[in-house]
Request: fold
Amino acid sequence: MQKQSIKTITLSRLIQIFFVAIIIVLSLIALSYRNFFQHTVENKALVIAEIIKAGLTSHMKAGIMDKREYFLSEVASVHDIDSIRIIRSDAIRKQFGVRSGSEAKLTDDLRTILASKKPHFIWNDLDSNVIAIIPYVASSQGELNCLKCHNVNDGELLGAITINLNISGYQELVMKYGYAFAAVLLVLAILIVFNMSHVIERYIRKPLSKVIHEGELAYSAHKKIDSGSYESQELDDVVQNINNFNEEVLLKEDDLQKKNQELIALNQEIELTLEEIIMAMGKMEEIRSKDTKNHAKRVAILSRMIAKSYGMSDEEVHLITLSSPLHDIGKVGIADNILNKPGKLNDEEFEVMKTHASLGYEVLRHSKRKVLYSAALIAHSHHEKYDGSGYPQGLKGDEIPLFARIVAIVDVLDALLCKRIYKEAWVGEDVYNLIEKESGKHFEPKLVCIVLSNFTTYEKLIKELS
Reply:
């Protein structure tokens, strides 16, 4: 999953905050305006009720109550008033009787509302109207002394007036101002977001990218970053930290490079020492055998050359070069009278001589060093034959380790071309013919092809180092 940039994260969070803030602000404004116009409408209804009360009282005093319907109709024709209805209490109905026209029926619900003797408002926002029920309470105070005309007690309910007001104009006004505020807030939010985008781009994203780029260049060039081009204190601190970090890392790298060089030198010294030890161990057998001078060296050189021609890796070629000189290390355990016998060994002596392969393996097999373990395999298997007739295990074909198969053909090639205590050196042509004849029997066919293809070179090398 691809991660978002600082700019994207910051702006998305900012937009979310503004979106929530706009909703909250608009809600508060809407509630405020609702309360404002609700209060206005209720005050208007109370004013109209007082006007109607004064008008009805004047009609009563003038003795023209039969004309009140005209008066109420004129008042109802005022803007925002849908209808006006009179409600008379039971006491007034009893005194003056029931009249038709604008008078509303007194129901139980209305009696419950009027019992509080306080103005009551029924809001219906969906239909854009409000019904105001304003009670008239008898009072002997003031110029409009109700007790003069009505046979009631002071504080008794005379009735009420219901005014049905149309509030669509107020609602439209609230929506109008609501849209205006929303537009202003939206523009303000857009301006703030764009400004923040510019601030983030200039003071955060670009400087951070620049710090990263300059940090890489400073590390590569072993130089410090110039903090003068960064405007914020935080980025200046980051630059200083990067400079300190780079300086510390470079010092560590110098120390590490020195340690690596020392380690490389030490490894080279160990490798050279190991090579010399292996060659010295190979020389031990040569010293006892008397007629195998430089045999270990020749085996190492020829094994390396054949391994390369075989297609082995550089590491394997190096490994067989180091390990092959120890192929006859087991002969240190063979008695001198058998090892240096000038003539052919009898069957019993030959059986003793054959044990040098297992002896060499036992000497080397416990080492965890790859070179010595490879030498153990070579010592154990270099007298095995490709057809399975060799010793000591009777291995066949690819069961014989490749290193041992190479050393086997090199060992025979060198033994035949060199003079030994029990024989003279063979003629090159006879050796060639024998190697060719033993293809698939004693030796791997691929190795025979390599040896025969380079026979002249190998023969010359063996004679030069004999």
